[in-house]
Amino acid sequence: MENTVANAEKYFGQFCTLMASYARKTAKLRDKSDLLVKQLIDYANTENPELRSTMKNFAEELAKVQDYRQAEVERLEMKVVEPLKRYGVQLKQTQAEIKRFNKVRNNEIKQLEKLERLRQKSPSDRHTLSQAESNVHKASVDASRTTQQLEETIDEFQKQKLKDIQKIFSDFVTIEMVFHAKALEVYSSAFQNLDNYDFERDMEDFRAKIHIASGNYDARPMSATHPSSTLPWSANSQSVRSTLQRQEDSEEDSEENIVQDFSNPEYAQIRR
Amino acid sequence: MENTVANAEKYFGQFCTLMASYARKTAKLRDKSDLLVKQLIDYANTENPELRSTMKNFAEELAKVQDYRQAEVERLEMKVVEPLKRYGVQLKQTQAEIKRFNKVRNNEIKQLEKLERLRQKSPSDRHTLSQAESNVHKASVDASRTTQQLEETIDEFQKQKLKDIQKIFSDFVTIEMVFHAKALEVYSSAFQNLDNYDFERDMEDFRAKIHIASGNYDARPMSATHPSSTLPWSANSQSVRSTLQRQEDSEEDSEENIVQDFSNPEYAQIRR
Fold it and tell me: How far apart are CA B99 and CA B154, in angstroms?
């Protein structure tokens, strides 16, 4: 009986530590994914509308999975780690009861041995022997009562243990199932979203931009091929400079856009 | 253009780092689960047949999930982290091309400025001016050709980037979907297994054992309540000792069983 309890203490203690550790590692995976979500949104804000929308959508789906992972971590702590901890407290109580039982039982053996010694030493001392026999009887009654109590305790302990094992591990499996089902659902939608990304449209956008930029730029070398042109060269240098200036301006704009998008409620919404 | 590439370098570098980190954290979660599987089997071997079979079954299902997690980690490294790394190499090549273009372009500007200065200083030196104009013309032709090359490079770069983004993140989502679907499947079976656990049968087993143990034990206190018994007390003490001895023997047996079960092929089979 003592062994059963000590065994349970050993393994349930390990299960508790490992499950807590499992929950912590899951939380770390969530943290990494959160960083990925943040970077995806950062990146999306530097891209053309088509890819920007696709990446933001993807980031939001990834954030949703992390919300489910967060729920998984909380449930694991509440329905697996905590019950295992509580079980540890119950185990200590059962162990205390066993200790008490052992004490009563040892007393019975002690009284029996005392009577035995008296029988060997002074078999004719009726009074002392009778006293010792009465002590043995009393100790036996105590031990018998305690044995019954302990049997009930152990029965209750075993019943509770088996029920707890089934409950705790079933809860673990249920929590994991819910998480995996939700993640599967969200990733299916994320896959659709990535699949719908219009690559050609994005390239058209990009080529149009490049064309405008290189169009401006090409204007200068083209006039440079006509040395007889009356245009002053400095004006061309100026256009290079202003083009660069526009580039810087547009950079500032896109920087501003990033800041704006970071503070917009849509972004805040998907953060925990 | 330069900015587009620098931007891609920045974010793709971060994606690569984060995805590698995500894979590593997943591997750590697998390691913790592997430890849990080991402890569950250890524990199962100390329990009654009914719970032993349930726990072993559960441990095996949990081990299966870890096998799928291992496949997830390997796929993430192969289809997400590695392509992101390769993409980093491509980026470096594009950056080198842009650097080369800037050099040619700067040369054109330098030639233009030189011509401008000559026009201001010595507007009548036809020979030197003609030479400078010819240099500008040559530099312009070079720049124009390089611009075209660069436009092609940038177009190719953008096309590749957009395709890579879609491919890499779609692969990420697919890998995750496969893992979650498999985990869901295995945990559904694990749930059924835990649900089928026959608690009552296990308690009957346990009570029968307790009854045998306490039956042996109760025999002694009962005779102790009859001091007139002719049985020598020492014999009873002997029975206590032999009961304890049997307990120790059975402990040794169960210890042996654990060692046996650890070395059996069923156990080895579910380990990687």
Answer: 13
Q: Do B210 and A155 touch (CB under 8 A)?
A: yes
Eight-state DSSP code of residue A79: I
Q: pLDDT tens for residues A133-149? A: 999 999 999 888 888 88
Cβ of A119 and B143 within 8 Å? no
pTM above 0.80, yes or no: no
- Cα separation, B225 vs A136, in Å, equals 8
Q: Are B136 and A224 in contact (CB under 8 A)?
A: yes
* Separation of alpha carbons A59 and A12, rounded Å: 39
Q: How far is A256 from chain B (nearest CA, A)?
A: 16
Instruction: Calculate the alpha carbon distances from A29 to A15, A26, B204 in Å.
Output: 21, 5, 44
Q: Which amino acid is at A150?
A: L
Q: How many CB atoms lie within 10 A of CB B259?
A: 10
Inform me whether the C-beta atom of residue B141 falls under 8 Å from chain A C-beta atoms. Answer: yes
Instruction: Please indicate whether, in this complex, the C-beta atoms of A32 and B25 are within 8 angstroms of each other.
Output: yes
pLDDT tens-place string over residues B111-136: 999 989 988 888 888 888 889 899 99
Query: Torsions phi, psi of B233, nearest 5?
Result: -65, -30
Local confidence band at B263 (pLDDT 50, 70, 90 cut-offs): very low
Q: A1-8 contacts: CB < 8 A, separation 24 or more?
A: A1/A98, A1/A150, A1/A154, A1/B210, A1/B213, A2/A98, A2/A102, A3/B247, A3/B251, A4/A154, A4/A157, A4/A158, A5/A91, A5/A94, A5/A95, A5/A98, A5/A154, A5/A157, A6/A95, A7/B43, A7/B46, A8/A91, A8/A161
How far apart, in whole angstroms, are the C-alpha atoms of residue B240 and residue A105?
A: 11
Residue A40 DSSP one-character state:
H
CA atoms within 13 A on the CB side of A207: 11
The CA distance from B142 to the nearest CA of chain A, in Å, is 10
Interface of A with B in 30-89 (CB under 8 A): 32-33, 35-36, 39-40, 42-43, 46, 51, 54-55, 58, 65
Measured between CB atoms, does A202 come within 8 Å of chain B? yes
Residue A264 is classified by DSSP as S
The alpha-carbon gap from A211 to the nearest alpha carbon of chain B, in Å, equals 9
DSSP labels, A220-242: HHHHHT-TT--S-HHHHHHHHHH
Token pair for residue B73? Answer: 């980690």
Structure letter (DSSP) for residue B264 = S
Q: Over 70: is that where the pLDDT of B47 sits?
A: yes
Q: Is the alpha carbon torsion for A96, A102, A108, A114 positive or negative?
A: negative
**Best to test chain B binding among A162, A164, A222 (most B CBs inside 10 Å):** A162
Closest by Cα among A27, A53, A88, A70 to A175:
A70
Cβ separation A210–B181 shorter than 8 A: no
Helix (H) or strand (E) run with residue A259 in it: helix A233-263
